[in-house]
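Incident log entry.

Two folding requests arrived from the same account within the same minute. Monitoring flagged them as a possible duplicate submission, but the sequences differ. Recording both here for audit purposes.

Request one:
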Amino acid sequence: MDLILASTSSYRKALLERLQISFRCLAPNITEAPLPAETPADLARRLAHAKAAAVADRNPTAVVIGSDQVAICGDRILGKPGGAAAARQQLQASSGRQVLFYTSVAVLAPDHPAQVETLQTAVWFRKLTAADIERYLQLEAPWDCAGSFKAEALGITLFERINGDDPTALEGLPLILTARLLRAVGLDPLRL
């Protein structure tokens, strides 16, 4: 079996490794810009499927996993900040507010219909002081993380609470959902 994760994300790779299955990673090389009037959930779903489809087109006999995550605070999408200034702005905007994360997973397999689902996770940030934000950014430098935090590490201290169905969804690849979608195409991680 050829299983491919359509991603070059070290976070998603580390998450999928938890399932103890053999896979390889390939870059999907797609454009990730939102479409006009596209909802955050629809954007995450479309991009997860597009990533999987781009890699599946080049590897037609493989089972391909694609995933994408979109964070939204109010009506503003929080992308990967890329640096300290944007991360500071995102955390200031999230302070004391709810941020919604839409994490989608697509599994494409030969002779099976596409499996694509989206999970919503709500995160309530505590009130953050300027000193909290500066210290956090200094310690973790979350420049490549949507929402400017790493929930699997010190970023969890920025929250008051989380509401969601999969504890790994905030990290970028919900493993409960991924395992279920793999089983739907005949690949049970417990039997590989």
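Request two (distinct sequence, not a duplicate):
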Amino acid sequence: MSVKIGYLGPKGTFTKLAVDAAFNGDDKISFKTIPQCIDAVNNEEVHIGVVPIENAIEGTVHLSIDYLVHQVRLPIIAEIVVPIQQNLLVHRDFAGELLDIKEVHSHRHAIAQCQQYIHKFLPQATIHYTNSTGSAAEMVSANGNPIAAIGNTLAAEEYNLNIMEENIHDYPNNHTRFIVLAKNKELVKINHSTDLERTSLLITLPEDRAGVLHQVLSAFAWRKMNLSKIESRPMKTGLGNYFFIIDVDEPYDDALFPGVQGELEALGCKVTILGTYPVYKLACK
């Protein structure tokens, strides 16, 4: 059976880079937005979906988290971590200088990752946000005006663009986490080794109870469970109402995690396991 993999497209996005690095020989289908990709998995149009979840510089991709929590609940089956190298891409016929560029197009996270570079070298350019770095590259390839895109080498190859400046991101340790979503985890086959298992939890707190967040964290602390991330997001039910995403760098087991769940539920919290999964750290060109 051919496994269909959906990703945030079009061709040339960093999500496509992650998919190519992790999966070989499968049917890869691009989607214009993160919600469309997640919906495609939920509606069984594709077997697997890959979407960005966090960047080391810009932080969490809130659209991915919020859509999974509020709209479509799918299990996280795996995580792919890849290095991100941002480049300034221009039309193959562009022969001007940096100061001749009037517009810069890219995804808002890519723009944010290159903020200092833009401030220093492209102060005259106006910023335009796109759904993805790939769609920005596609736009530049079809436009003869002095505009540029921020994207990767794959985008330059896919859309026949010139790389005017390499590695323009502001900080060198630029990585992005991508999550792999699927209803059937048996279809997710990533032929890379991993030395890390992670479990992601969704926790909602009882209202108007002083000190409850401290008690929640204590449930993990005294069991010596390593939390790699804790983040609050609005419940969208009113001011002051939040849920928490907690990542634990351990696989779900039959001892520690049920103990944590029981302790938190006794406090009035609601606990949902978003996924327990391997983390693959891959190298992409």
